[in-house]
């Protein structure tokens, strides 16, 4: 079960039951797709979406920004979409703002 909750009271706003693969074809950007489905009711509302390290990626941030939503989350330094200069600095604390405009 994957869900999106209200930050103030913790109530479940929308959820998805993930039952595994829907086809034999490997799905690319599954995390981005799930976040997009959960955030669908909030498109163009100028809200923040907080994600954990599994759901945070450049593709997710870009998708949300295209729908007038911002994303905040942590990302592993070893992921493909992390810039090489940031991978070298992975052991240091960084404050990074990614603009997808």
Q: Please, could you describe this protein's structure?
A:
It is a single chain. With 101 residues, this protein is of the alpha+beta class. It has one domain. Helices cover 24% and strands 17% of the residues. It has helices spanning 30-39, 58-66, 84-88, and strands at 2-5, 12-16, 48-51, 70-73. The strands form 2 sheets. The protein has a two-stranded antiparallel sheet with strand order 1-2. Strands 3-4 form a two-stranded parallel sheet. A hairpin with a 6-residue loop joins strand 1 and strand 2. Helix 1 runs parallel beside helix 2 (58-66). It starts with a strand and ends in a 13-residue tail after the last helix.
Keywords:
about 100 residues, alpha+beta, 3 helices, about 25% helix
List the helices and strands and how they pair.
Layout: E1 2-5, E2 12-16, H1 30-39, E3 48-51, H2 58-66, E4 70-73, H3 84-88
Parallel strand pairs: 3-4
Antiparallel strand pairs: 1-2
Helix pairs in contact: 1-2
- Biggest sheet character: 2 strands, antiparallel
For the secondary structure, the number of strands is 4
Q: If you average the pLDDT, what whole number results?
A: 77
Estimate the strand proportion. Answer: 15-25%
Q: Radius of gyration from the CA trace? A: 15 Å
Q: Secondary-structure element order, as H and E? A: EEHEHEH
Distance between the termini: 32 Å
User: Which percent bin holds the helix content?
Assistant: 10-25%
User: What class, by secondary structure content?
Assistant: alpha+beta
Give the count of helical stretches: 3
**Can you tell me the number of structural domains?**
1
Shape: globular
